[in-house]
């Protein structure tokens, strides 16, 4: 058996989609992540970005990144453990810990690496992790790299989680790991119920709040703040690539736990340090999150408007409770076709197909920014209505 033999399957799967002119991945954008982007020489309203607060092209954020670039250069030339730790890393970690109301925080080069590193170094042979079936891939991969066991429970099914926790041997360490906001459906983990189960069974709780940070909570601290359960969440993970307008990620929690992660997480100690320009950009974005709560207000005004108008048109938007609003279209081909047609009508969206979602529940993933204007949203709604009727997704 040739180790490359399996690669033919992907080529065979994508060939008909490419031949039909419906291949929707790796689309090249030649502009900033603004509400309107340039693709293939045309302007499209961007409904496919995680730039929730609109800071990725903010002048203050870019200036901070440029100043760091001038001072520190383009990279750190080593890992944080050895020669790659800069004062800008330490300053950002202090700011993050203070913002999140935690004792300490630790940055990683990407958000994916946070979960990979944290979970693999925390889970020993005597530990069990409990994962929502729709948790992000990096949570699953992080658990696979650890020596502990991991059990999945049906999405947001607290009865099944309770049963699995009740069946665990008393001498096992238990860690519940969930997304605060599930990135495809846009719904939330029921953190108050999970917190009660955590307390009852003596477990620990980690929340991946990549899509909640800066978006939820009165102060933007994410879904634990939104639900009033920050004291019940032991570890919070966040990324810089969404609301904080950069690249990288962090974990925040008790100091002794962060110290353990800092010295044992392979994704941290064997990776090059995050570039200083990204750290400076994230720090400035964090400052703006604290200084300008009106951005969150505008984001939620846009989100509520689109949720209401999409539902009025007859689209199935699932159980979204966030600026991620899916449009369920059925079969995978319908998702590809609608993505392509919307692009032709001037709107950029993302297709979500199996196995990321169950067969027959393919969707269009839309997401919104504080910087979208009502004109942007109305133009998008006009295109969505036209293509939805054309494909018989709505009447």
User: What is the terminal-to-terminal distance?
Assistant: 50 Å
Helix and strand sequence: HEEHHEHEHEHEHEHEEHHHHEHEEEH
Share of residues in helices: 40-55%
Could you give the count of β-strands? 13
CATH architecture designation of the largest domain: 3-Layer(aba) Sandwich
Strand content: 15-25%
Number of helices: 14
* Tally of discrete structural domains: 2
At CATH level 3, the topology of the largest domain is: Aspartate Aminotransferase, domain 2
User: Strand order across the biggest sheet?
Assistant: 3-9-8-7-6-4-5
Structural class: alpha/beta
Largest sheet: 7 strands, mixed
Give the radius of gyration.
21 Å
- General shape: globular
CATH H-level homologous superfamily name of the largest domain: Type I PLP-dependent aspartate aminotransferase-like (Major domain)
Keywords:
395 residues, Aspartate Aminotransferase, domain 1, Aspartate Aminotransferase, domain 2, seven-stranded mixed β-sheet, three-stranded mixed β-sheet, 14 helices
List the helices and strands and how they pair.
Elements: H1 7-19, E1 36-39, E2 42-46, H2 59-72, H3 87-100, E3 104-108, H4 111-122, E4 127-132, H5 137-145, E5 149-153, H6 158-166, E6 173-179, H7 191-201, E7 204-208, H8 223-227, E8 235-239, E9 249-253, H9 255-264, H10 266-269, H11 276-291, H12 294-313, E10 324-330, H13 332-344, E11 347-348, E12 350-352, E13 362-367, H14 374-390
Parallel strand pairs: 2-11, 4-5, 4-6, 6-7, 7-8
Antiparallel strand pairs: 1-2, 3-9, 8-9, 10-13, 12-13
């Amino acid at each position: 058996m040739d180790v490359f033999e399996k690669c033919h399957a992907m080529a065979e799967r994508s060939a008909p989609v490419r031949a039909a002119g419906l291949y929707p991945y790796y689309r090249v954008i030649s502009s900033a992540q603004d509400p309107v982007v340039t693709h293939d020489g045309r302007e499209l309203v961007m409904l496919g970005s995680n730039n929730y607060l609109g800071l990725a092209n903010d002048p203050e954020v870019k200036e901070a990144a440029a100043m760091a670039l001038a001072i520190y250069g383009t990279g750190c030339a080593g890992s944080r453990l050895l020669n790659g730790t800069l004062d800008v890393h330490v300053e950002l970690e202090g700011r993050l810990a203070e913002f999140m109301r935690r004792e300490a925080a630790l940055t990683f080069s990407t958000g994916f690496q946070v979960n990979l590193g944290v979970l693999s170094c925390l889970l020993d042979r005597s530990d069990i992790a409990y994962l929502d079936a729709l948790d992000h891939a990096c949570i699953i991969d992080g658990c696979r790299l650890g020596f502990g066991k991991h059990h999945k429970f049906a999405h947001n099914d607290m009865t099944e989680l309770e049963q699995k926790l009740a069946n665990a041997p008393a001498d096992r360490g238990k860690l519940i790991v969930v997304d605060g906001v599930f990135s495809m459906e846009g719904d939330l983990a029921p953190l108050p119920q999970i917190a009660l189960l955590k307390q009852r069974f003596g477990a620990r709780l980690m929340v991946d709040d990549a899509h909640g940070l800066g978006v939820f909570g009165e102060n933007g601290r994410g879904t634990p703040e939104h639900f009033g359960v920050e004291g019940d969440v032991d570890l919070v993970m966040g990324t810089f690539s969404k609301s904080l307008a950069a690249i990288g990620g962090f974990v925040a929690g008790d100091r002794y736990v962060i110290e353990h992660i800092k010295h044992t997480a392979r994704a941290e100690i064997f990776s090059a340090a995050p570039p200083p320009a990204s750290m400076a950009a994230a720090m400035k974005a964090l400052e703006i999150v604290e200084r300008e709560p009106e951005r969150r207000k505008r984001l939620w005004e846009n989100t509520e408007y689109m949720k209401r108008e999409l539902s009025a048109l007859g689209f199935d938007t699932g159980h979204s409770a966030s600026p991620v609003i899916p449009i369920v279209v059925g079969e995978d081909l319908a998702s590809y076709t609608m993505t392509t047609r919307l692009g032709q009508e001037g709107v950029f969206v993302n297709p979500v197909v199996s196995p990321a979602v169950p067969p027959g529940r393919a969707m269009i993933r839309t997401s919104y920014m504080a910087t979208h204007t009502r004109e942007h949203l109305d133009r998008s709604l006009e295109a969505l209505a036209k293509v939805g009727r054309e494909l018989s997704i709505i009447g």
